[in-house]
Automatic annotation (TrEMBL):
Coiled-coil residue spans: none
Listed SUPFAM superfamilies: Glycosyl hydrolase domain
Domain Glycosyl hydrolase family 31 C-terminal: 60-144
Protein name: Glycosyl hydrolase family 31 C-terminal domain-containing protein
Pfam families: Glyco_hydro_31_3rd
Length: 151
């Protein structure tokens, strides 16, 4: 089997490996707070993540789901290609444009959605625009979904 260059002991250092600091804490407190916030969120959602992984294993459902998988009767959900559901209860609308500070996202009909960061509640079947600063990925909680979380 052919070895790939990155596995060889004599691999040359490229321009991306300058030897400079690359740990998140090397960039100051503000940069450190962002991943720390998401690590806390991940731990809080651990029971939900485990449940979604169980569904993937036992039922073959994908972890990252297109909106139409949970909302097949919503025609608009079939056209969304820039957001996904993480399991049945979390809608993730990542910011895909550099420098953007707001994000417009479609929330599928048939459920109410709560902005995970602000607590604002939206009726499904609508497009909403939410703030999306660099340190916040737009995330919406489906009101009728079971969402086990750690205390």
């Amino acid at each position: 089997m052919r070895l790939h260059g990155f596995r060889e002991p004599g691999m040359p250092l490229g321009p991306e490996m300058t030897g400079g600091p690359n740990e998140v804490w090397s960039y100051g407190e503000e940069a450190y707070r962002v991943p720390a916030r998401y690590l806390r969120l991940r731990e809080h959602l651990k029971p939900y993540v485990l449940d979604v992984m169980r569904q993937a294993h036992e039922e073959g459902l994908p972890v990252m789901r297109p909106l139409f998988l949970e909302f097949p009767g919503d025609q608009a959900a079939w056209t969304v290609d820039d957001a996904h559901l993480f399991g049945p209860g979390l809608l993730v609308a990542p910011v895909l444009t550099a420098g953007a500070t707001a994000r417009t996202a479609y929330l599928p009909a048939g459920a109410r959605w709560t902005d995970a960061w602000t607590g604002a509640v939206y009726e499904g079947g609508a497009t909403v625009t939410v703030d999306a600063p660099l340190d916040r990925i737009p995330l919406f909680l489906r009101d009728d979904a079971r969402l086990p979380v750690a205390e």
